[in-house]
TrEMBL record:
Annotated Polar residues bias: 501-510
Cited InterPro entries: HerA_C (IPR033186), P-loop_NTPase (IPR027417), T4SS_component (IPR051162)
UniProt-annotated stretches for the region Disordered: 425-510
Ranges where the Helicase HerA-like C-terminal domain occurs: 35-432
Pfam families according to UniProt: HerA_C
Protein name as catalogued: ATPase
Entries under Gene3D superfamilies matching the protein: P-loop containing nucleotide triphosphate hydrolases
SUPFAM superfamilies named in the record: P-loop containing nucleoside triphosphate hydrolases
TM region(s), chain numbering: none
């Protein structure tokens, strides 16, 4: 590589504001590469809300890149949320193990390496696996989002809106899927006939379709995700007393085979954040950065509605100061409408074993700005923990394409010990013993089988068939959930998001 090219990279990545250091530029033949610690490849914190993609074949260093980004964000006081699909990111909470390799890498890239653990909080989806259970109530989820997840058509969607409206009018709290099923079941029973008629616009046929899709959704394991206590998105925006941002790790290994569950969750979480956070426009550093490791799991078999929703949310959430990074094997795993919005790119090595690989490689090369590299050749010969990087500069223009050796994470590159993880969970201010907040109704469920909604509905007579009434007339649905939700105590209107201090024993306090 020419000196001019190195100079162009040096000046292209120079920043005046806060930035994270990804690594150092590399030059030479792929058989004898030289890293240049004096040519730093950095990512300005001010462009993180322009989102990003970390891609590459398995074992090339994507997750470690995510780890070192999360570490530097936390250090800069930026809270991080990450979906830890394989459980290999829990190590963020423990100091890394020094090694010859790590010292070598640090020296190569001009990094002062120091073992360090970071403030972490572990969450699980509805209590599956290790972590504080993350849940949402059906009411808060709302009919629109639920319809999208269920893949309902327009008529069914407006009908579901009427069901919510009915529950709202009757003061029936819809906490979990069972509650919602009970209401739909009631409306399709003989006892509910009058109510159904009164609602005008909900046919029993449509109600039947909704009921069946709710049952199928439960069968996919979605039940555990709905209910109380509900996650308060402000819990994800915490900084510690020492100023570091909290890293919220959603531990998903236990539900890896249930993509419908976490895609549902993601959709709600993004929508909820979007709703709760004030507009901030462009900021010096983001309010929160989201990382989705193994993001292909999100989009595999996703409905068009889901993809549209993600695309729209990713576009709009930018002005709320939230950055979203997708981490996946190939850029082709991410739908075009989402990919087009990802301004920052870290591309690890790709394989070119099969014709399909070749095609993916060519497609990836095409998405990069022009450069002196033979990217097809470079991308297939990158070392582990090396990447081809292009991000947005502080002025918002793409930086020169740079072959980069990445820094080494300072926290543990292996999963945290289970016992230690349990300690962190037990010490959490969100743990069951200290959980302060119950949205919706203040009572807990005494039995997992008895739904309070069921108890408050007239009993259906056993063994009678419901008469079917087909009515295609329907009204526009109103969503009662958003406007009537319990005010979020941590969000005090525009520009004023309060951050609660981390108070876990394991975190350093001033
Ligand atoms: N930046 C890095 N610093 C140090 N080691 C790394 C780095 N990137 C990758 N490695 C090594 O490569 C292995 C695989 O990296 P990983 O991030 O898990 O790959 P991927 O997520 O792409 O499958 C790690 O366990 C680690 O040993
Ligand atoms: Mg990985």
């Amino acid at each position: 590589m020419s000196t001019e090219q190195l100079d162009a990279i040096r000046s292209g990545y120079a920043t005046t504001g806060a930035a994270m250091h990804l690594g150092a530029a590399v030059s030479g033949a792929s058989t004898s590469p030289t890293a240049h610690p004096d040519v730093q490849v950095s990512l300005p914190l001010s462009v993180l809300n322009r989102h990003g993609l970390v891609a590459g074949a398995t074992g090339t260093g994507k997750t470690k890149t995510l780890q070192l980004m999360a570490e530097q964000l936390s250090t800069a006081g930026v809270p991080v949320f990450l979906a830890d699909m394989k459980g290999d990111l829990s190590g963020l909470g423990a100091p890394g193990a020094p090694s010859e390799r790590t010292s070598q890498r640090a020296a190569d890239v001009g990094q002062t390496w120091e073992a360090a653990g970071f403030p972490v909080e572990f969450f699980s989806l509805g209590g599956r696996g290790s972590g504080i259970p993350m849940r949402a109530t059906i009411t808060d989820f709302g009919p629109m989002l639920l319809s999208k997840v269920l893949g309902l058509n327009a008529i069914q969607t407006s009908s579901l809106g009427l069901v919510f409206h009915y529950a709202d009018k009757r003061g029936l709290p819809l906490l979990d899927l069972k509650d919602l099923r009970a209401v739909v079941q009631h409306l399709t029973s003989d006892e509910g006939k009058a109510d159904l008629k009164e609602l005008g616009g909900l046919s029993s046929a449509t109600a039947g379709v909704i009921l069946r899709s709710l049952i199928a959704f439960s069968d996919q394991g979605a039940d555990v995700f709905f209910g109380e206590p509900e996650l308060d998105t402000a819990d994800l925006l915490r900084t510690c007393e020492d100023g570091r941002g909290l890293i919220s790790c959603l531990e998903l290994p236990a539900v890896q085979d249930r993509p419908a569950m976490f895609s549902t969750f993601l959709m709600w979480l993004l929508a909820d954040l979007f709703q709760d956070l004030p507009e901030v426009g462009d900021v010096d550093k983001p309010k929160l950065v989201f990382f989705f490791d193994e993001a292909h799991l999100l989009f595999d078999d996703a409905s068009k509605e889901f993809v549209d929703q993600i695309e729209q949310t990713v576009r709009l959430i930018r002005s709320k100061g939230v950055g979203v990074f997708f981490v996946t094997q190939s850029p082709r795993d991410v739908p075009a409408g989402v990919l087009g919005q990802l301004g920052n790119r870290v591309q690890h090595a790709l394989r070119a074993f099969t014709p399909e690989d070749e095609k993916a490689l060519r497609a990836t090369v095409k998405t990069f700005p022009k450069s002196e590299y033979d990217l097809g050749e470079l991308l297939t010969s990158l070392g582990i923990g090396e990447a081809v990087v292009t991000v947005l500069s502080e002025r918002g223009v793409p930086t020169p394409v740079a072959w980069t050796r990445m820094r080494a994470p300072q926290s543990l590159m292996a999963p945290m010990e289970e016992a230690r993880m349990q300690e962190v969970i037990a010490a959490s201010p969100l743990g069951p013993s200290t959980r302060r907040r119950w949205t919706g109704s203040p009572r807990t469920r005494s039995s997992p089988h008895a739904s309070p909604v069921q108890a408050r509905l007239p009993r259906a007579a056993p063994g009678r068939r419901h008469p079917r009434r087909i009515d295609l007339h329907h009204k526009a649905a109103r969503s009662p959930s958003r406007s009537r939700r319990t005010p979020n105590p941590a969000v005090n209107g525009p520009g004023n998001v309060r951050t609660r201090a981390c108070s876990s024993r394991s975190w350093r306090t001033r």
